[in-house]
Each structure stands twice: as structure tokens, then as C-alpha cells.
Design brief:
This protein is mainly alpha-helical and 498 residues long. It is 61% helix and 5% strand. Keywords: Hydrolase, Membrane, Transmembrane, Transmembrane helix.
Length: 498
Amino acid sequence: MELTYIGVVQAIIGLYIVLLGSVRSAIFFLILSAILMGSAAVVLPALGGSSIPPVQFALLFTTLRILAPKGGYLGFLPDAVGDNKWLIFFAMYGMASAYLAPRLFAGSFDVFPMQPIEYLGPFGTVPLAPTPQNITATFYMFGAVMLALSCNVMSRMPGAAAAMISAIITASWIHITSGILDLTMRGTPFEDFLAIFRNASYAQLDATASGFVRIRGLLAEASIYAGLGFALFVATAEMWYRSIRSSVTGWTAIGLAMMLVLSTASTAYVALAVYAALFMLRAILFPSAAPAGKLMRAAIAAFGAVFFLCALFIFVPQLPIAIWELIAEMTFGKSESLSGQQRLFWAMQGWHALIASYGLGIGPGSFRSSSQIMAVLGSVGIFGFVAFVLYLVRTFEATRRSSWGLGATPRKTLGGALGSAAILCLIPASISGPSPVPMAFFSIMAGAAIALRRPVQEAVETSPDAALERGGLRSFPAKGARGPRKTVLRPSNRVCAR
């Protein structure tokens, strides 16, 4: 086990959080670590060059902070376990099958391995057998659960809601800035600085496409950059839709959307199209759930984007043809390309694994997929798939008003935004995800969303003193009040913000 320079910096920060850190610092530490998806905090040569990503390493310190006897968090852990029981079942089943299934079904099924082998070619397979990737997948499954539990526990504490909002906004602008620098500094010595953060054992791919530079930022390839950017985009867009610090979250969402378009990743285009369709469907079905004027502003923004594109095409006439060729290559042309055929082959492995294992799954880390849906089915079978779907239902809570717009309280409103974003951020992975392990931001937002909408918390956090202390609500004299002054709490444009 080798600690990288990123791991050293994290260890110093993590020790400070364990000894002296607050909820705000712990949340920032987790979320900012989660955007370093192309980095390694710890390298494991004994496991074939596998690595521990920064978010998993940061989780070690935040977990220690929660388990500390005098930390004040430990009492919330039993409720957090109950809130996330279906994710725990999904992970426990996956961890058990990662060890047992490759041994139980060894040699009975051929797979394309998670760790590519050069001599196999694009469609080569090897007999199913236990590999180091099964051990790595077990660790990642455990990390997904602990992320949800940690964020669930921390979200119950005063000030956590404001910290979550600020941390997501900060992470978004770091993501945008890294993408802009990667785009403008390509081919200069500054690219070596960005490469410092790409120290994990991932192949560095996709430099250009149809003459366009593919944006990778701090990550290994454009599709990963787009997947992370989309998670941050839906989080900020859903907060803007519910008037949570809308002056900041709105511009942040616009910046992330522009970077998704410029990323040239097919998953970004498909994910944006799906989100736009769902956004319009929600507006049609639940128009009263949105704050006044929000749908009109969304329509104006959409028309503004179209106007900007039309003006750009007038000044650069050849640009529409180039963009169309790029989109065609990244979407429609994918199915005819070698890459598209290979991705289809990988995706179908999940279905074949489900059938070959009699619905039990062959274990996470046993094969590479190109769709998280198929990866879940092939890895953890029917039982794991049902558990994961039940956790999605628990996270979204479709019967709550906050899932579609404004909630009854600021905490419910933020919980609805994060719950919706947690579900939506799975769209890119469902198209191109190689493994059944959900991305870190899914666990972070899902765990926090469930905690923020707990009724027991609302009684404490929505009291006048607590609300005014957070600065998320303003106090107004009640109309026609006589005698002692009464107050009515109304949501401002900075819900849950400091």
C-alpha cells in the first residue's frame, strides 16, 4: 500500500477533522474529495495496481469523526441505518456475492474482465474466476454505504444544510474551472499540472473528436467528466428550481450545462435530453409545485440559449455543420462504430450473467459492463436489483410535495432537491456505467436527502430561533397583529443558506 501526495494532503486534513473539525468542514471534505474521480489517494500494487480514490479515503476520517465517543454524532447512527436499510442490503449482498459467486460459477461463464487484457481484443473473453477486482468492488460497495450513512448522520446536525449547499456550489465551480483550463491550455505546460490529479490507474483517453478538443478537466476521459458534471448540474438546477440560493445556483447550473455541451461526450447529450424532457413533464403535471415565476424564467433561459446559438451560427457559418457532425458521431454514429458495438457487447454481458447465474448474479467486479442497470442485474441478480430499486423509491419519495417542487419547510425543500438530483445523476451511468457501484455523489445526496426530510428533525430545525440563526428565513410582523409582536416565517430567496 502506497500513500500518494494527494493521500498525504488528505491525511493531514482528515486528522484535523477528526480532532477539531465541524460538520461544515467534514461535508466540504467529502464533497470536494468526490470530484477527484480520476485521482488515487492510496495505490495497492498487490491488487494489480488498484487504488483507493480520494472520496473513499476521506470517508475513513469522517467515519472516525462520527464514531468518536464525544463527537455528538454516534446517537444518530441507528436511525441512519434504518433510513438506508435497502442500500445496506444491496451492498451486503454485493459484497457476499463478490466473494462467493465467482467461485460458485467459476468456469461456467465467459466474461470480459473489469481489468482489460491487451491480447483479448475488443470482444475477447476469459472464463469466470475470482480476481483482485472482486476485492476492489467489495471495498467500493462498502464505501457507497458508508458515504450514505455519514451524510445521513451529518445532515441531522445544525448548519449541515447550508454546508451541503455551499460545498456543492464550490465543487461545481472547481469542476467548471478545471474544464475551462483543460480546454484552453491543451498542449501547454499547464497540462502537466492537470495531469497531477490523474494519478489513478485509468487509461487517459479521448483527446479529440471530429476536430473538437474533448474536455477532461481533472479526470481521465470526457465521459467521466460529463458524468460528474451532470451530477453537479442536476443538483444545482434542482436547487435553483426550488429557489434555494437561486442567484448562485442558477448561474452555476448554466455554467455546468455549457461545459456538458462542450465536453463532446455522448452520455452528456443523452442525459441533458432526458433531463429536459423530465423537467417539461414535471412542469406540465405539477405547475403549482414550483415557486412563482420559476417556469417562466426557465422558458426565458431556454429561448436565450437558442437565440445565442443562432447568433453564433450567423457569425461562424461553418460551425453548425461541424457541431452536427460531432453530435452525429457521438450519438447516432456510435452504434455503427467499433466503440458502440463493444459497449453493446459489454452491456449484454449483464443479461447473460443474470441468466447463467439463475438470477443470483456473478458478483461485482467479475465483468465490465457499459450500463449500470445491466451491471446491477448481472452482478447482484434479482435480489440486489430489487433492493436498489427500493432504495431509489425511498430516496425520491414521490408522494412528497418537496420531490416535485417547494416543500413545507426549508429542510424538506432541500431534501427534495437532493433526492431528485440523486435519482437523476444515475442517468449517465445507466447509459455507460461499467460497474454496479453507484457514484459517490449518489450516496452523498441520497443519504442527506432522507435525513433532511425526517419529521423528527423538522421540529428542531424549523423553530423560529433555529431558522433565523441560519439566515434562511426572514421574520415579518403578522398582518393585523395586536399586543405582543407575532412573527410569520416566510421562505426567502436564500432558503437554508447562511
